[in-house]
Design goal:
The chain is mainly β. Helices cover about 15% and strands about 45% of the residues. Strands 1-2-3-4-5-6 form a six-stranded antiparallel barrel. It is globular.
């Protein structure tokens, strides 16, 4: 299985980086920055207006510029719910 990757922006420098998604929910996205023993987990939570997700890792703020509705649509598209009658 391939790991899902998203692009986040570091606010101080404006640089964008690819990070691996560890857990994705509409209320919180957990991402992993780096690889191996030098990796860092970060929680991204929705901003007040709900148009982006933000969090801090190693003292730097990172932002995922997608709305809560867009993230929920991605989750629904990637992991469709199986009807109970099929179980």
């Amino acid at each position: 299985m391939d790991a899902e990757k998203i692009k986040v922006r570091i606010t101080e420098s404006g640089q964008t980086i690819d990070v691996v998604v560890f857990n994705k929910q509409a209320s919180r996205i957990q991402v992993v920055l780096g690889e191996g023993v030098h990796n860092v987990k970060c929680d991204l939570t929705p901003t007040r207006n709900g148009r982006a997700y933000s969090g801090k890792a190693l003292g730097r703020e990172i932002v995922y510029e997608r709305s809560r509705e867009q993230v929920q649509a991605d989750i629904d598209r990637l992991h469709p719910v199986i009807p109970k009658s099929w179980r």
